[in-house]
Amino acid sequence: MSCVSNAMIKMFVFLMSFGCAVVSAAPQRPENREAVILIHGLGRTSHSMQTMARALKAAGFSTVNLDYPSRKFTIETLAMRHIPQGVQRCRDMGATTIHFVTHSMGGILLRYYLTQRTLTGLGRVVMLSPPNQGSEAADALKNNAFYRWYCGPAGQQLGTDPSSLVLDLGPVDYPVGVITGSQHAFFDSWLSARIPGKDDGKVAVESAKVQGMTDFLVLPYAHPFIMNQREVIKQAIYFLEHGRFNSPQATVQTESFRSQLSD
Q: What's the CA angle centered on 62, arms 119 and 71, to 5 degrees?
């Protein structure tokens, strides 16, 4: 948009995009046949999920920290090309149950994939700051030349307009726990001002919700770094183990959302 300088946008995407590209698989414990696939967000790499992956491994899960070229292809292509690779790595480790932990657009890739394929042994899913109803940040930036170049075709699919791929995915019918943030990083102040209600600098709290989700939790963290927060990691592991978050706050928020849907 004309009121946003390219310098600010370059700073925004630079701070999103640290890390090196790797695919890492932790050795499986003989007694454990549960694995977790981690899927990073737009403009990030598997490095951004390494803290979460280490914690999951310490909790006894085998892990596949998936890497994919998020800037180069559409959501459909990324999902169908790369998630099956992660699934096969889990199978090769002997996993019979496959869970997922996703960040931001990673959750949208997974939702799309699961509309196209039935995954035998699908376990539980934790989505961190997913734009499940689209992102007003993507709306604000979609016509900016630098954003279009940097975020590629997938970045054009994450808006809130009727043509958004996200809005065509429908409800989820598998166990999903959503954790989203309610604070923004200093470099996202200009985006936060364009998002209605509480937000994490990229996604509105309300936009992280998805019909059919099992549990929902809002924590005071910002979008780019939510996956590294100790409380988020603890809650993600608890959900994978128990199918719910260990927080009375989550119960209230989830029941409130279900009540809105029934009105």
A: 65
Amino acid identity for residue 64 in this structure: V
Phi, psi of 84, rounded to the nearest 5 degrees: -60, -30
Q: Domains of the chain: which residue ranges?
A: 6-262
Residues 53-107: tens digit of each pLDDT: 999 999 999 999 999 999 999 999 999 999 999 999 999 999 999 999 999 999 9
Integer angstrom CA distances of residue 201 from 13, 36, 182, 218? 13, 27, 8, 14
pLDDT band, residue 257 (cuts 50/70/90): low
Long-range CB contact pairs, 54-57, < 8 A, 24+? 55/233, 55/237, 56/101, 56/236, 56/237, 56/240, 57/26
- Measured in whole angstroms, how far is the alpha carbon of residue 12 from the centre of its chain? 18
Per-residue pLDDT reduced to its tens digit, 179-212: 999 999 999 998 899 899 999 999 999 999 999 9
Q: Domain 6-262: which topology? A: Rossmann fold (3.40.50)
- 206 backbone φψ class: left, alpha, beta (φ>0; ψ -120 to 50): alpha
pTM of the model: 0.85
Are the CB atoms for 249 and 255 separated by under 8 Å? no
Mean pLDDT over each residue of the chain, to the nearest integer: 87
